[in-house]
Design brief:
The complex is a heterodimer of chains A (201) and B (242). Chain A has 201 residues and is mostly helical. Helices cover 68% and strands 0% of the residues of chain A. Chain A contains nine helices and no strands. The longest helix of chain A has 31 residues. Chain A is globular, with a radius of gyration of 19 Å. In chain A, 42% of the residues are buried. Chain B is of the alpha+beta class. In chain B, the strands form two sheets. In chain B, strands 1, 2, 3, 5, 8, 9 and 10 form a seven-stranded antiparallel sheet that branches. The longest helix of chain B is centred in the first third of the chain and has 23 residues. Classes of the chains: A mainly alpha (201), B alpha+beta (242). Chains A and B meet through α2, α3, α4, α6 and α7 of A and α1, α2, β1 and β12 of B.
Amino acid sequence: MPVDRSRSDEIAKEPPGHRGTGLTDEQIAGAASNDARYFELLYERYADRLYRYALSRTGSQTEADDIVSETIITALERLEQFDPQRGSFRGWLFAIATRKIADQRRGHRRFWKAINRRWQHDPPGDNAHALALRDDEHRRVHRAIQQLSEANREVVTLRFVADLPIAEIARTLHISEGAAKMRLSRSMRELAKDLGDDIDV
Amino acid sequence: MTSNPENTTYEQHGRLVEQTYASIVLTNEQRTRHRRQLREAARQPSRVRFSFISGEVAAIAAVTLIVVVTIVIWQSLDSSPSNPVRPEADATARTAAVPFLPPESCPVDAWVGPEDRLGGQYPNSLADPEAWRYSYFLDGSGITINARLGLVYEGNNDVFWLMRSYQPQDMTYSAERLDDPSFSATWSFGEPFTARSNVHGEALTVRRSTITFPVPGCWWIRVTSQDVGLRRVVYVYPNGAR
């Protein structure tokens, strides 16, 4: 086999789960629908990003872990329903995660309503310190995101944590691209108001 | 380029949100647990549970299923000439499942797509030019290979070459199998034409080509010229997997 140093170096830089795949998500998803073992490659690609997304939405490590776990199992079980002509695998996966978070929220609301009726007590949430966020500024951003309304937090985190383009966000939230842009812009204004201009990027 | 202050703040805050969570990763324990759950789920292809369905609902579902199956069978038997021809499977499907993943030992490069980079400016001589509109690209430096589904097979493959600068006298093309360079591919070329890139708006020289791989496996493709070049690894699937 011809040895090419530059090429070997390039390969060595690839994260372990990606080595040798060089395939699009959609192609791997196709292969995984024939052999579910291939789905682990997609898990490797998206596990951390799903976790970050769930964490930024819920603020809880335990809940975020559950969301990742439930999302990947659901994605595997429903893989045959994934249609690459209707959007990317990434968008489809985050749409599942978004629904899981909404389901969890509904469950929580019911639970805390019942608890509050008895003890008039607010649900506890993991605080930003517990999330191993790198510095004070990141903790401040996390708190500001948690202050956003559910709908605004959803669109900001889909854009900047899940890294979905506007078109995919629109599909995920079942709204038009224009509405997604408007909602994002409004949410960013609200975030900016909370964070102020003294940010260090 | 002048920037709108609001957009700048927007971008800065967006970057800050991104950076806030960038360092957070799952622990090894979480990964191990998730992988175990995935493997368990993979072993149970049908995890749909019907225990919550009452006997009455199950009976209605069964009757509905029988009716649907009967209609489907009836329609498939009715193949008289007056019956309209059933549409073929979507010939313009923009993606194809890979028959299997290339072995770990084959460091294949990723095709990008499906993308509409040429705005459908494919020659009419193609059997189905529209099927190429959203296709896959393997980028080099100033030169790109374009394949309809981002897959290549043993035997003949239609591909397009997209080049920023085209100097036919300087171009060399080669493809050889990684584990046995004695196997080499053959090429044939169509006339070059100019198309405007849908992505950057620049004019590209596009050349249709047929590349023929004699055997499947892991292959280098190399194209060099004075100022453009492409050196990529592709996995060539067996002809039977088409």
